[in-house]
């Protein structure tokens, strides 16, 4: 039998900012995104990206959880709406993440709850946020 190993996906992002204007972000796979900062500007600001990363990871992880439970065929749609509350004191940060899951399909409430909890345990982003990751920073010219 052939040894099938998934090729690792390149990860990471680079943001570039000129003296004026807004950041332009490029992913390791060449995806591109322009960042906005105005309150009424459509698009993503840095906090939106944090919430987007968590919400996307949670829905993908919920699908994995439902598959592992053998009930994915009963799920029709998974939504994770993520917002946050910034801390009122100390360093600028999100103190509370508010997550609203919607798991549609032929499922009872107990099963929906199990999927949501499993998703939080599977999701790399939620696990990272809950932990205390280290930062390794270098400065170049």
Question: What's the CATH topology label of the domain at 45-130?
Answer: GMP Synthetase, Chain A, domain 3
How much of the polypeptide forms β-strand, as a percent range? Answer: 15-25%
Outline the biggest β-sheet: 3 strands, antiparallel
Q: Work out the radius of gyration.
A: 18 Å
Contiguous low-pLDDT stretches (5 residues minimum) are: none
SSE run? EEEHEEHH
Strand tally: 5
The name of the CATH architecture of the domain at 45-130 is: 2-Layer Sandwich
Count of helix runs: 3
Terminal Cα span: 51 Å
Q: Class by helix and strand content?
A: alpha+beta
User: Roughly how much helix do the residues carry, as a percent range?
Assistant: 25-40%
Major sheet: order of its strands?
1-2-3
* Mean model confidence by pLDDT: 94
Molecular shape: globular
In the CATH hierarchy, what is the class of the domain at 45-130?
Alpha Beta
CATH homologous superfamily grouping of the domain at 45-130: K homology (KH) domain
Protein name: Organic hydroperoxide resistance protein-like 1
Organism: Rhizobium favelukesii
InterPro entries: KH_dom-like_a/b (IPR015946), OsmC/Ohr_fam (IPR003718), OsmC/Ohrsf (IPR036102)
């Amino acid at each position: 039998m052939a040894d099938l190993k998934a090729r690792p996906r390149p990860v990471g992002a680079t943001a570039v900012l000129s003296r004026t204007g807004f950041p332009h972000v490029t992913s390791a796979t060449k995806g591109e995104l322009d960042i906005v900062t105005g309150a009424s500007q459509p698009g993503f600001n840095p906090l939106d990206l944090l919430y987007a990363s968590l919400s996307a990871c949670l829905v993908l992880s919920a699908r994995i959880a439902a598959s592992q439970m053998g009930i994915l065929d009963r799920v029709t749609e998974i939504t994770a709406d993520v917002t946050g509350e910034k801390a009122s004191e100390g360093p600028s940060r999100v103190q509370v993440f508010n997550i609203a899951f919607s798991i549609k399909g032929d499922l009872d409430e107990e099963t929906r709850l199990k999927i949501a909890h499993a998703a939080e345990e599977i999701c790399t982003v939620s696990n990272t946020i809950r932990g205390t990751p280290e930062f390794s920073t270098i400065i170049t010219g």
